[in-house]
Amino acid sequence: MIQVVYEKKKARLYCTGHARSGEPGKDLVCAACSMLIYGLADSIAKLSGKAELTLESGRAVIGSQTKNMKRKKRAKVEAVYWGYRNAFRLLADNYPAFVAYLEK
Length: 104
What we know:
Layout: E1 2-7, E2 12-16, H1 28-48, E3 51-56, E4 59-64, H2 71-94, E5 99-103
Parallel strand pairs: 1-5
Antiparallel strand pairs: 1-2, 2-4, 3-4
Helix pairs in contact: 1-2
């Protein structure tokens, strides 16, 4: 199972595990989650300039230091996180046997 956790105070998303909803290379739930992870990582890296990125098989950490950002930039980063958090929530709602989503 894939577990996705977003920590709002730290502006950090953690993703661990594997969906195992299909055979390797043909697992559509895994592919969907992977694309969300890579899209979020790319967006946060480009917007924040100081992103914390760990992208490994079965493990991802995406974070940004929004505390010291200017207001407009922080608002953009938070909007990107909101969109991707919603996408992960939808994935978990549609595939609860394979994806769990939690916000802290």
